[in-house]
Amino acid sequence: MAVATSDSILARSLITDRRSTNFGLKNEVCRGKVVPCRAGGKVKGKGKGRVEVKAAVQIGGLEEIKKAKEGMGLDVVSEEELREKGFLGMRKTKLVCTIGPACCSLQDLEKLALGGMNVARLNMCHNTRDWHRDVIKKINQLNEEKGFCVSVMIDTEGSQIHLLDHGAPSSVKAEFSIKYCVWMAGIEVGDELVIDGGMASFQVIEKVGNDLRCKCTDSGLFLPRAKFSFWRNGKLVARNSELPTLSKKDWADIEFGVSEGVDFIALSFVNDADPVRQLKNYLYMRSSRSTRVLAKVESLESLQKLKEIVEASDGIMVARGDLGVEIPYEQIPTVQEEITRVCREMNKPVIVASQLLESMVEYPTPTRAEVADVSEAVRQYADALMLSGESAIGPHGQKALSILQMASSRMELWSREENRQSILHQRRLGVSLPDRIAEQICNCAVEMANNLGVDAIFVYTKHGQMASLLSRNRPYPPIFAFTSDNGTRMALNLQWGVIPLLVELSDDDMEANISTTIELIRGKGMLKPGDVVMVVSDLTPTHINSTAFQSIQVKTVV
Ligand SMILES: Nc1ncnc2c1ncn2[C@@H]1O[C@H](COP(=O)(O)OP(=O)(O)O)[C@@H](O)[C@H]1O
Ligand SMILES: C=C(OP(=O)(O)O)C(=O)O
Ligand SMILES: [K+]
Ligand SMILES: [Mg+2]
């Protein structure tokens, strides 16, 4: 049993199982009838054709439309939500759940999926690859057999140092005494040993061989395989930045993730853009291009190189747990808001992670402060919120997920009622004319959609670019993103307000795509007469003589 008391104790036996470091840790493991009405002019550009704004279009007489395939497209959770709450009531903020021993059975995973989990996160710091493989298998099974659309993310261990599992059930609180053994050269008497960013603290009072004799100065929560850091005069001593971002074990975990076809790889302790580029090159070579690379911002260095990291990656995680160890706590709220803003400007999805509903790791109700924190992340328009221990080891994971769900929906409604979206200013993103056209179409489409009060935006996308450019403007109506690429579908799961659907799309017949997809949703009884849909298309030419066709059309269901 792990116990920490305010007595002096001999540091022994719980040695970290991480890689070697300069301070000498062991490395052992470890997708009608159309009456066009032109309102826009021609835009000439390299490789691009016309931009049309069509309005007052009616949908009807759909005999010519080929029947949408039954069961294709919309996932069961979005379908249910749409039936229950209507288009505007659909939740925009995405939810990520860390899977651990408390939620890894097929039944538990199904409950999380039904509860709105968009992405399942597997933290490779914990458990075995066989255990993670089993979870991925169950998620794939649920997606295939029950019609869910849950993406899988693996999260690398990175340069973290853990204590071994102390063997206690989940957490040990209050007075406890710890027996651990550390073999660290650079640590001096007087240094402070901080567990999990301050959950418990010790002071080194004596070095005995490779052991450190420590005195507990702050007793507290001690999770199995807790992380720790050493401090001297208010500064970190044992720095993670001295460790490689991608260790041998991380590469083996990445290889595992690629072979299991995971959708996201989140990189821990990224300090600059290099490891992100390195991994993206590797994925390119492995023909695993649909795997998206997320960079976790959790070090001081990553904050200093934020823009280059955001530029290089496919998304960001504000990993507040470790970030709160590296920078003073009081800076976390402003840093989070800044990262969230930079990501939206640069059109990369951002996850706000760690301690959102931390007290629910133990208790069945969140603190009001936690609910306020969750709501603040939603108010900042983060793409996604993440549960860690709340779902992985806590007994109230499903309830924690429902609280994220309710808090997000509530704040999204408030933001809409307050017309907060209108104050979002977008920095110019694209450099080439075609990119700038796509960007302008999306900016204008969202402004029109909000002003006209359309019910839904439909967009057709190969790599997710148009869908994410729309999402970036945080529109009031949900964005139904139709794609024939499953990798794109799974990646869009992380983007604010985007409901990704897998459908067969024609490369050169946009009207057929529009008709098919509208019929798909109407066929399910989810589009009623009077509903207004905005259709945004950006058809890229498939051969040299074909023209691109970009349009914004507003269609009323009859
Ligand atoms: N796959 C897993 N197997 C066992 N325990 C896990 C797993 N994933 C997470 N946990 C537990 O849930 C806690 C919270 O998860 P997370 O925040 O991802 O990890 P960490 O605390 O290491 O940053 C971990 O400390 C660990 O105790
Ligand atoms: C999400 C985080 O990373 P991990 O749980 O892997 O430490 C964090 O530090 O907040
Ligand atoms: K990790
Ligand atoms: Mg971390």
Describe the structure.
- By secondary structure, this protein is α/β, with parallel strands linked by helices.
- It folds into 3 domains: 1-30 and 161-238, M1 Pyruvate Kinase, Domain 3 (Beta Barrel), CATH 2.40.33; 50-72 and 426-473 and 475-557, Pyruvate Kinase, Chain: A, domain 1 (3-Layer(aba) Sandwich), CATH 3.40.1380; 94-159 and 243-421, TIM Barrel (Alpha-Beta Barrel).
- It has helices spanning 76-85, 106-114, 129-146, 248-259, 274-285, 300-304, 306-312, 320-326, 332-345, 368-379, 389-392, 397-417, 433-452, 465-471, 486-492, 510-523; strands at residues 3-4, 8-10, 50-59, 94-98, 119-123, 151-155, 176-177, 192-195, 200-208, 211-218, 228-232, 235-236, 264-267, 292-297, 315-319, 350-353, 384-387, 456-460, 479-483, 498-502, 532-539, 549-557.
- An 8-stranded parallel beta barrel has the order 4-5-6-13-14-15-16-17, surrounded by 8 helices. The chain has a 6-stranded antiparallel β-sheet with strand order 2-10-9-8-11-12, with no helix packed on it. The chain has a 6-stranded mixed β-sheet with strand order 3-22-21-18-19-20, sandwiched between helices.
- β13, α5 (274-285) and β14 form a beta-alpha-beta unit.
- α10 (368-379) packs across α12 (397-417) and α13 (433-452) packs across α14 (465-471).
- The radius of gyration is 25 Å and the shape is elongated.
- The relative contact order is 0.15.
- Residues 1-71 and 177-183 have low confidence and may be disordered.
- The site of magnesium ion has 5 residues, from α8.
- Pathway: Carbohydrate degradation; glycolysis; pyruvate from D-glyceraldehyde 3-phosphate: step 5/5.
- Its cofactor is Mg(2+); K(+).
- Residues 90-162, 175-398 form the Pyruvate kinase barrel domain.
- Keywords: ATP-binding, Glycolysis, Kinase, Magnesium, Metal-binding, Nucleotide-binding, Pyruvate, Transferase.
